[in-house]
Amino acid sequence: MSHGPDAPESERTASSDSSADDDESRRATENDVDEGAGGVGEKSDDVDDGAGGTGERADDAAGATGDGDSNDDGPMPGVPDPESEESDVPEDVQKYARFTKMDGAQYDRVNEFLRDRTYITAREWAIARLCSDFRTETGVEMTKIGENLPELVPFMTDTYTPQAVNQARSSFEDKVRTAGATFLYGAMCDFFTAEELDDVMYESTEVAKFLLEVEGVDLSVEDELEAEERISSVMREVREASEQLRDRDEEE
Question: How far is 133 from 156, CA to CA, in rounded Å?
């Protein structure tokens, strides 16, 4: 219904009030829509946060599962069981105590000591002794020595193949023979005097006794004196024989 200028004042006032009410209603509706849109946005953020929270919980759960696995009392995959390893070691190897005085010694230090005083290396020294101790009626147990080398000798850290054990033993034997020939030639060629040869023999004997003591050989004073006397006796015979040879060559 239209209200013209000639309409009564009461009708015009009512119409104005109705328009104002309509304007307020529209503004309220628009505000509700805006707030509703904002609310939807916040809920979307909450969903994103929730997803992030779910991810963190998943990571925590995975970490907890990992910790549970690591704290398992069972043996770790790929890690040998110490009890089964010990049971695999032969009884005579477990009881072997030849080099117990060398516990904590490092290969390089032992090797340096031997290099300064002998021709042999630490590897050759250890394996030569083991070949003597594990010799049987049918030969030396090369496989047992090589497989249990770290358990037998404290300063040896790797296992050896039977071929490597045999090579070290052969090298030791060759060096002893070469050193023996060198020494005897020095004694027989008149390069050293009798007193100088005695000094050489004394020094050599002291080194040999030290190595034996390290191996656990208990040498009594009587045994030492007897060994030194035998060596001195042999050297006297060597000197006498060499003098006879030289005199014969001069006569011819």
Answer: 17
Other Cβ atoms closer than 10 A to 42: 9
Mark whether 157 and 230 lie in a shared domain: yes
Q: Report the domain count for the chain.
A: 2
Distance of CA 252 to the CA centre of its chain: 66
Q: Is the pLDDT of residue 123 over 90?
A: yes
* Structure confidence at residue 76 as a pLDDT band (50, 70, 90): very low
Q: How confident is the model at residue 129 (pLDDT cuts 50, 70, 90)?
A: very high
Shared domain for 54 and 141, answered yes or no, is no
Asked, for residue 81, whether it belongs to a domain, the answer is no
For the stretch 80-108, pLDDT in tens is 555 545 568 889 999 999 999 999 999 99
Instruction: For residues 202 and 105, state if they share a domain.
Output: yes
- Residue 173 is part of which domain span? 90-251
Q: Is 195 exposed, middle or buried (0-12, 13-18, 19+ CB in 10 A)?
A: exposed
Q: Which two tokens stand for residue 174?
A: 């060759």
Report whether 168 contacts 109 (CB < 8 A). no
How many CA atoms lie within 13 Å of 138's alpha carbon, on the beta-carbon side?
2
pTM above 0.70, yes or no: no
How big is the chain by its Cα radius of gyration, in Å?
48
Same-domain check for residues 140 and 213: yes
Instruction: Note whether 97 and 220 are same-domain residues.
Output: yes
Query: Per residue in 139-171, pLDDT tens?
Result: 889 999 999 999 999 999 999 999 999 999 999
> Residue 6 has which token pair?
């000639």
Domain match, 25 and 143 both: no
